[in-house]
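Box 3.1 A note on notation
Throughout this textbook, protein chains are presented in two layers. The first layer is the amino acid sequence; the second is a token string describing backbone geometry. Keep the layers aligned when reading.
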Amino acid sequence: MFSLFQKIPTISTQELAEKLPDNIELIDVRTPQEYRSGHIAKAKNVPLNKIGGYTAKADQVYVICQSGMRSKQAAKVLSKKGYNVVNVRGGMNLWTGKTVGGK
């Protein structure tokens, strides 16, 4: 049964760092400006306001934003579309790994 209070699984930025070598789908739902200021190399920018039209290429999708709030909203939208979504707790605020700037 579908629940409004569906629990979206979360992982820490540390756990995400360990998964990056695998072929994972990582979506950064921050604004294009925030994304350009520094993002995880593997992350694809899909701003939160466009997430409803996003089609993931994998069953498992990891979602990140600045603090974890927008990614949680995005995760709910993607989850309703049938994807297995994992929210990255704390977002880029807690990310200590390498980032790249630009597109």
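The chain has a mean pLDDT of 92. The chain has one domain: 10-94.
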